[in-house]
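Bug report (template v2)

What were you trying to do?
Predict the complex of my protein with 3-isopropylmalic acid.

What happened?
Run completed; filing so the output is reviewed.

Input:
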Amino acid sequence: MTKKTIAVLPGDGIGPEVTRAAIQVLENIARLHDHEFVFKEGLIGGSAIDEKGGPLPLETKEISAASDGILLGAVGGPKWDRLPGANRPEKGLLEIRKALDLYANLRPVKTYSALIESSPLKKEIVADVDFVIIRELTGGLYFGEPKKREEIDGETQAVDTLLYKESEIKRIAERAFQAARVREGKVVSVDKANVLESSRLWRETVDDVHDSYSDVELSHMLVDNAAMQLIAQPTSFDVIVTENTFGDILSDEASMLTGSLGLLPSASMGSTGVGLYEPVHGSAPDIAGENRANPLAAISSAAMMLKYGFGMEKEAEQIEAAIEKVLAEGYRTSDIAAKTDDAVTTTEMTDAVVKAL
Amino acid sequence: MTKKTIAVLPGDGIGPEVTRAAIQVLENIARLHDHEFVFKEGLIGGSAIDEKGGPLPLETKEISAASDGILLGAVGGPKWDRLPGANRPEKGLLEIRKALDLYANLRPVKTYSALIESSPLKKEIVADVDFVIIRELTGGLYFGEPKKREEIDGETQAVDTLLYKESEIKRIAERAFQAARVREGKVVSVDKANVLESSRLWRETVDDVHDSYSDVELSHMLVDNAAMQLIAQPTSFDVIVTENTFGDILSDEASMLTGSLGLLPSASMGSTGVGLYEPVHGSAPDIAGENRANPLAAISSAAMMLKYGFGMEKEAEQIEAAIEKVLAEGYRTSDIAAKTDDAVTTTEMTDAVVKAL
Ligand SMILES: CC(C)[C@H](C(=O)O)[C@@H](O)C(=O)O
Ligand SMILES: CC(C)[C@H](C(=O)O)[C@@H](O)C(=O)O
């Protein structure tokens, strides 16, 4: 019997509903495999601002740091959109990434054949898509200093800084090569080396790290070209590794390929061993509380936690298989249903997954 | 009779072939409408490095500055890929943008119904796509200082700077609102205001400028969401305005929608009245000199020069109509042909356009 403590940060909008679904699945996995999962809940995002005055209360930081893995729902919503930058829901997410040094964001993009028809792309383009984007998450344009506004000669200007140290690039490159080894052995490193100095250092450093992973095939691609190739030939990719901002844009672009944003999980991992697992989709305030949200991305994120955080490969596969099964059986929440009438609720979908386990 | 001097910068790869095609079309337009176009050729990019030691020789700068409009082919190629940053072909492009203050890059994205089948996206998603991306081209992450490498505590780090002054944002926002007025009247301003200080200034400034264009509908969208919406609902856009780097990525992403990269033109305009017109596609060194390149993007760029640079709307429309006609008649260069056997050459395609004028 393995005991694990899981920090649960439901957040805003549909966050609470989908994390509840993931917990239900995890509890069943625990029962089936005789594990003990202890869940500790914490506030984050808008709900934390409302109750505690800030998007990442100290208590949440402590619960998270002391856990074996963090399950997050989603943050943000129109209610908090007019708050100043430092006190917005998203700030909670940025802070927890930095506080726990979660520098590697993994976003697998994989076509579920049952859902291929709902992709905006043609079937022949997206069939068999299966790659992972590894986004650097604690450096680059998001966190570099100076990041400020100033008056120069009576005019306002604003500055952000894209900064990378060699060591930051090295560790994310290593993650990428390691991931490629247990996949198809191909890494594409994405940068803008024809314009950015940071990209030139990125490219050189990735090349250096590659010397120790010469069994993995490495190529470099400019970010504008990558934005094209993701659409033109998404099946050509295996592992993509890139800078924080480029990764933000490209991974959201990639999330559209499979036609099932509501199914995509993500993992953010770092140096401490504690990872953060969350759906790619946002807080969807328009359908919050209506029992209509698709819980599969949160459930799939929980599976990533089992696999990458706890080394429970078998349990993770069991969840993935259950998801494929319910999709094959025709269960569809409203986001992926052909007709809204046929859609099942969040709880019905979750129960179906539990039954399929 | 109107006389115009046109600087022609063929550049590298297929650049010379496609600019030659554009010149042929312009000469015919001149003849038909009794204009006089004087063409002055200059070196840029890799060929300039080879012949003059740098990607933007002084002579080219002078020819360009003294012209009424600049027609550019494409720059770059593997031959020059190992040169240091300051002496690469692309540097010529960046320098001429800065030297002539070409701060507004216009990239229309429009579906040609004859080519809709070659899009990677489903027909129902891309039919009737018709928007323009207005990318800020002389500021932001491309040109901000510091942009350098340094050793800190024995470790190398590299820095780029995303800097915007209010006045830079103001003038590009004005372009966007003006463009929207003669289109569908809708501007989407794309930024990353939840993370970047420069984006928050961007958003506020665009809002301020909007006060003088209240007949135009304005909304703001985060760049990651924009990367999704371009695929999910491309027909929802009319005018998109955004920062230099975001524009680079999003406009290349958008160029894939119509399935006809080889047809997309661009215009870069500034404060001096001299604009630079170039195809969106690159130098395609693999097919250079084979008379296989698609000349339509260069021809269409020439049409943009007539329209935006010289105020010759009728002439521009005549070229656009000729392009539509040859496509409808089934002329296809190899990049857009269903079977390579049926493809016409660069010169055949150009002759067909001239005949259709
Ligand atoms: C909410 C926002 C700050 C965040 C980011 O930009 O990193 C989100 O878009 C993401 O990708 O996780
Ligand atoms: C060649 C390169 C420097 C250039 C850019 O990034 O601006 C190109 O990608 C473009 O979009 O015109």
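What did the reviewer find?
The pocket of 3-isopropylmalic acid (ligand 2) is lined by residues A 194-195, 224; B 90, 93-94, 248 (CB under 6 Å). Chain B has twelve helices and twelve strands.
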